[in-house]
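Readers outside the structure-tokenisation community will struggle with the description of the input data as it stands. Showing the layout once, in full, would remove most of the difficulty. For illustration, here is how one protein appears when written out as sequence plus structure tokens:
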Amino acid sequence: MRYTAASDNDALLEAERAAFDCGHDETGHWLLARRKLPDYMAQACLASHALQPEPGMHACIAASGPVADLVL
């Protein structure tokens, strides 16, 4: 598989969907639901690329990348 740098998170999502037919938003939703975390968390992951996230979600979304990097 050939990797290329994505210019931003939306470009990364497009590349994931082109390569795998799903993106990190859908994968995150699936993982959170499978781990039986509260549904609002899984839904927030799924909606993280929505044009207008719910109020207060911007900070959570902004923190999700560094938190994921730390966990991995």
Observations:
- The mean pLDDT is 79.
